[in-house]
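*** Protein under study ***
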Amino acid sequence: MTGRAPDRRTLAVVSAGLRQPSSTRLLADRLTEATVNALGQKGLDVDVHVIELRELAHPLTDALLTGFSSGPLREAIETVTRADGVVAVTPIFSGSYNGMFKNFVDVLEQGALAGTPVLLGATAGTARHSLALEHELRPLFSYLRSVVVPTGVFAATDDFGAVEGAAGSDDVAPLVVRVDRAGRELADLVAARTPREVHDPFASPTSFEDLLAGR
């Protein structure tokens, strides 16, 4: 096992948007930027790894059918598993996360995200779907025993078009305020943790004597 530098963290960003450009990816980028800025204020550098699930749609289906993950999907799984923090954003379809998002969660090994700080985000056409964030996404990651930040960010189409910083017609804070708050909450959790150790298969190779002895 090898440790990371104490002033460095890794952030995995999972976007389940289906189109390009994608409002889901846009929200993921904003949440990531807010988190990186907050970690920077704490004197921490961040390596960001973005995973676009649309590019893994076929490998995901294959993995579900065969029980075996390979290639870019295996790399994506390892990236998420080794990250110090995760930003996970999905569009909301029929009141819940989309199927590709759930498929990716389903191919993770049991306990892979246990204890990992996770910031949740969701997008949809209207604010009527905003409760899916709390009723669908948060229970899913609680089941995975992740540490979900208190603020989840839902963004409807109108949120992106609103004047930055302007108050809405209801009691909901503007998107920029919610994104900044959520990013700071994730940064606090990530900064408080010891950087994850990464297994290096070449750090302690098996000696020829042990190989010959079958050990």
